[in-house]
Amino acid sequence: MRGRRFLWLLLLVLAGVVFCLAACVSDDEATLPERSAPVEAVTPEAPLQGADAPLTLQQQVDFARADLARHRGLDPGSIEVAEARRVSWRSGAIGCPKPDIFYTQALVPGSLIVLQVGRKTFAYHAGSDGQPFHCPPDRAESPAPGSSASE
């Protein structure tokens, strides 16, 4: 009888360990920054691949403009560039943290691109990999002070 209790207790502990390990794996995946796969031509339809050097600021602007046009059904020519500059982001969130996610707390080189359509603006952030992504206003953070080198 005592051997059976021990066996059941052991199985229960093992099940708990397996459950905890499974939960840890899914939590790690949730902490990755919001980015899409790298891309070849600078359009949202054709991902950038094999780029050893970071994208130029102009390539990032072109990508962001094409992405905004595609998602909003706009003519890319109607999208103005209000701001485009190299910056240092305050953390691994690249200026666009998701709630309840922990990010590295170190400066991350990247870019800030602000596009404008009429009176509405759209912020695109990029990290050291160079591919910009749209950051909603409710999550956008400003870059670290003194990090505004234009290209």
How does this structure look, described?
- The protein is α+β, with helices and mostly antiparallel strands.
- The chain has one domain (31-151).
- The chain has two helices and four strands, in the order H-H-E-E-E-E.
- It has helices at residues 2-30, 57-72, and strands at 80-89, 108-117, 120-126, 133-135.
- The protein has a four-stranded antiparallel beta sheet with strand order 1-2-3-4, with helices on one face.
- It is elongated, with a radius of gyration of 22 Å.
- The termini are far apart.
Q: How can the largest sheet be summarized?
A: 4 strands, antiparallel
Low-confidence stretches: 25-50
Q: Sum up the overall morphology in one term.
A: elongated
Q: Order of helices and strands, N to C?
A: HHEEEE
Query: Helix- and strand-based class?
Result: alpha+beta
How much of the sequence lies in strands comes to 15-25%
* Radius of gyration using CA atoms only: 22 Å
How are the secondary structure elements laid out?
Blueprint: H1 2-30, H2 57-72, E1 80-89, E2 108-117, E3 120-126, E4 133-135
Antiparallel strand pairs: 1-2, 2-3, 3-4
In a nutshell, what does this entry contain?
The chain is α+β, with helices and mostly antiparallel strands and 151 residues long.
